[in-house]
Task: structure prediction
Amino acid sequence: MKPRAPFAAALVFAALFCPALPLRAQPSDACTPGWSMLNQLREQLTPETPTEMLALLHSKAESRLRVCRNIPDLWYYRHLLARRLNNATDAAYALKLAKEMDSAALREASNPLVKTPPPPAATAPLPSAIREKWALVVGVGKFQDAGNIQSLNYTVSDATAFSALLTSPTLGFRKDHVVQLVDSQASLLGIRTAIGQLRERVKEDDLLVVYMASHGTPRQSDPNGVSYVLTYDTRLDSSASLYATSLQMIDLTQLLKRDIRARRLVLILDTCFSGDATGVRSAQVYASPQVVGARTEFSTALEGFAGTEGRVVMSASRADQPSWESSKLQHGYFTYFLLDALQQKGGKIPLGEAFALARQQTMQAVARDHPPAQQEPTIQQSPAGSAIVLSAPTTN
Result:
């Protein structure tokens, strides 16, 4: 048995991701720091960000926009920062440029510095019955840029087994309702297209499960504190190409929160955020007060994701730990034990209970097989999300 293989150390130079768009143009090298700055703001700004940090970020945004002016949303975020810092002159100037460039963030009136109440649907009772059950299952083990990104051993096995369990008589998902993308199918366009198809088909009283297994990076390994997931066609030959070909975690969560209407939504991550650690595939998510495990370097991209009733996010390990896989099991430990747990009680087991079983078994098996290593899966969940039963019957 051996730990999961990491991607190349070339990630250290990465400049990260652009705004959430269906397709993205290749950025110039001159503008890459500005786009990276924008994504740092999108992922990290909260109503609680201290004034000293806001002033530093405002200064950095000014600097980036002096080098590359054509980043509409960065002008809008500069406006928000200046307004919070009571710099009326710069706030007005930045807003003027954001309007002239037709900033999408301005049109949407998004403002991460202001607390907003949950939408009415979030506080309404969940539908008592599930109309349809859907799933998107992604597993990337081989990468187009094989010279820079090391392959993973069992991500495809994990994804294939997860799809098979969902469509088995035990859990009862319809085969035409489960979208599976592995290796070359799991390109950035392929993943976004699949989410777009689900956006059109999934209704409010449906259940959607999203499972992802691939390489990734933790926010602490990036100078701008941004986390992202590698797709099949991610390229590491330059910072600009990495920027243009990776799935940023904040984009994934915003796509799901903004575009998917399902009130019951389950996100399961067995994704490597190891950076330069040898042989790990560890997932990192923001830990809410309901988390199982410690709050250690979780990505703010998922903050509040499970704050809406009917939401669950699971990860294979804490952010500061490796996520191991086993040649004997032919799977990652967490996925293997989660698959087993979901079949307990004839599949009629709530997600919270299934996770607790998988967590305990994962911790014990890794400690036994790879001392002194530790692997502690984590979860954030709403009460109704914890009670979801994947084998629940549908009404349609």
About this structure: Residues 120-386 form a domain with the Rossmann fold fold (CATH 3.40.50.1460). The chain has 13 helices and ten strands.
